[in-house]
Structure prediction request, 335 residues.
Amino acid sequence: MTQPNSLVEVRGLSKWYSLPKPFGIGSREHVRALDDVSFDIRRGEILGLVGESGSGKTTIGRILMRLTDPTSGSIRYRGQDITRMPRHQLRPMRKHMQLVFQDPFSSLNPRMTVEQILSTPLLVHEPELSRTQRRVRIDEALRLVGLYPSAADRYPHEFSGGQRQRIGIARALMVKPEFLVADEPVSALDVSVQAQVINLLLDLRQQLGLTILFVAHDLAVVGAISDRIAVLYLGRLIELAETRTLFTRPSHPYTEALLSAVPRIGSTLPKPRAVPHGDKQPSPSFSFGCNFRPRCAYAQIACAKSVPMLRPDNTGHWKACHRDDLVLAAPIHQP
Prediction:
């Protein structure tokens, strides 16, 4: 899976959370938020990470930023292992890796002006700058995200949700990073504003040469911005492919179901639905077999015996499914 131009390399990433002992006795059980996840992010690309709520998407983003430590596995950034790197060594690296938060309301301090919010990263990573130099950088960042420099003197409550998210993006750009983790940056916004923020991120990638991990639960949104898409289900990576390939030739039944749930605008024809059977597993704590098999219409006996390995075909389309004979529907076209 390693690419010659990879910026981020994730190998065997797992994250387990301990559950309280029942009645304080017995052994602890664990929830596997992530289970043996591996992928690369190429320099200059936007990798979409998609899955329903509880699949582990945000956990991956937090671990890549080293806000959460993994249980096992490794993360290499620029070829350097940062998995267990101590804080004093990690701090200079954080300048190159920044996070755009999901909620544009709670992620900005209401007691601080925009200038104070955007100055904070510079005070941490570039304390030698004067206030005048910081203000120049702030004005540049605000213009980059489509806001006037005069916005720096105002407070977050004076802006709309879309404008607040632009401020959040500007804060991430203050220290000129090369890698962004965008954790569902448009899920709290209106549809029209979502399109504006997506176009902004695409423009910033072009202008600044950014590499972006774009996390979302909406496959249509991910398809509009991503070069490749990774599909996550209950902590396991089940499919990874170029965006066009994933939309026209899905290889995993769960991806087929996600595609069938995307609305088609302007079509009067009935849309085929690939609805998973049964209920979602209450906890990804089990380790035997395919974790999608209770909901899969194509499950066989082999699916309950062993965990399918993520493996590529001859076109570089990765999937984790025992069924190589399936021809799945692609009910929508690539956005």
Remarks:
- Residues 106-176 form one domain.
- The radius of gyration is 21 Å.
- The longest helix spans residues 191-208.
- DSSP finds nine helices and twelve strands in the chain.
